[in-house]
Amino acid sequence: MDYVVTTLDNLLHQTAFFNLTWGNYMMMAVACFFLYLAIRHDFEPLLLVPIAFGMLLVNIYPDIMAAPQGDHAGGLLHYFYILDEWAILPSLIFMGVGAMTDFGPLIANPKSFLLGAAAQFGIFAAYFGAILLGFKDEAAAAISIIGGADGPTSLFLASKLGQTAIMGPIAVAAYSYMSLVPIIQPPIMKLLTTEKERKIKMGQLRPVSKLEKILFPIVVTIVVCLILPTTAPLVGMLMLGNLFRECGVTRQLAETASNAMMYIVVILLGTSVGATTSAEAFLNWDTLKIVGLGLLAFMFGTAAGVLFGKLMCVMTHGKVNPLIGSAGVSAVPMAARVSQKVGAESDPTNFLLMHAMGPNVAGVIGTAVAAGTFMAIFGVF
User: Fold this and answer.
1) Cross-strand pairs, 376
2) pTM, two decimal places
3) What are phi and psi of 69, to 5 degrees?
4) Is the bond preceding residue 333 a cis peptide, omega within 30 degrees?
5) Residue 218: alpha-carbon gap to chain centroid
6) Rounded to an integer, what distance in angstroms lies between the CA atom of residue 5 and that of residue 158?
7) Nearest to 205 by CA among 113, 107, 117
């Protein structure tokens, strides 16, 4: 009888109930809320489902992220996360984005670069805000990239600047805000624009030749990487993926980069990012500051893009719909879809998606350039 009681007692104490804290339960509730948003409301499920599930796993079984010790192997998601720290997964994500994205709208309307640049204001606002809150320069720079709504670049810069201690909160904030673009952006866009501005219909973009589409990724790689060589892993992979798409002789590579490889990388990156949110690591004041700064940065970036769009609207005598400025953040193609959605709410016959894709692609390049600028400032090669 004693043997049975002892065995049952051991089994009972092996359950997670005896090892979890209130913080673990809180993070599990957050994970379930993210899953609800992704599955019930279709908020970027390809990102939010793996992130939320990684969050759930690590708060039930923290050792799934444990580092190897002696002869004992590390947890499964620890090895996934190493690929984030080495900036391998973020660079592969950029290749997939390049292979999936048509750069034609940006080529057809180069002024979109200005809108993409304006939306990067949130990055520098967050940088100075982080310094005011007591973060050191390198940590402030890593945090600030959240304002570009660019998860891969946030991971890349945090790794390059040696900010692995706060990489988890930065990544979760960046990817969460990317997923929540449909919730965060519309109120800001409507607040800063009038009904008349939201109804502006933009003229059809000019046709872009095949030669232009082939030359664009090559020229951008040469120009940007010569000026900021540290951006080569991101900009180079983005443009390589796009060259696969546009050159016409690498269809299999383009399909692999934009489908199978992209989805595999998203699974590895999403679950490992979510697994950085153990209650012990996540529930502290620094993390809350990072999450708050990231939200403010994203809001500032959206507002700056819309306000610059309003300026362009005035300068072009009403030919630019200010809503496309909000797509200047780097969340491709979610931000462009939101521009389309908000415009269509005012006028269902208004089609802004292709016009918004120009600033959206420019935002991806702009965020990578901002990261390269920070690396140049801090002497990182």
Assistant:
1) none
2) 0.89
3) -135, 115
4) yes
5) 24
6) 50
7) 107
Q: Would you write out the chain's pLDDT as a tens digit for each of its 381 residues? A: 666 666 666 665 566 666 788 899 999 999 999 999 889 988 778 888 999 999 999 999 989 999 898 888 889 999 999 998 888 999 999 999 999 999 999 999 999 999 999 988 889 888 999 999 999 999 999 999 888 778 889 889 998 998 888 888 888 888 878 878 888 999 999 999 999 999 999 988 999 999 999 999 999 999 999 999 999 999 999 999 999 999 999 999 999 999 999 999 999 999 998 998 888 888 888 888 998 888 888 899 999 999 999 999 999 999 999 999 999 988 888 899 999 999 999 999 999 999 999 999 999 999 999 999 999 999 887
179 is written with which tokens? 């997923």
Rounded CA separation 277/31 (Å): 10
**Look-up: residue for tokens 């609800």?**
36
Other residues' Cβ atoms within 10 Å of the Cβ of residue 331: 29
DSSP calls for 61-79: -GGGGPPPBTTB---HHHH
d(CA 152, CA 48): 14
> How distant is the alpha carbon of residue 12 from its chain centre?
41
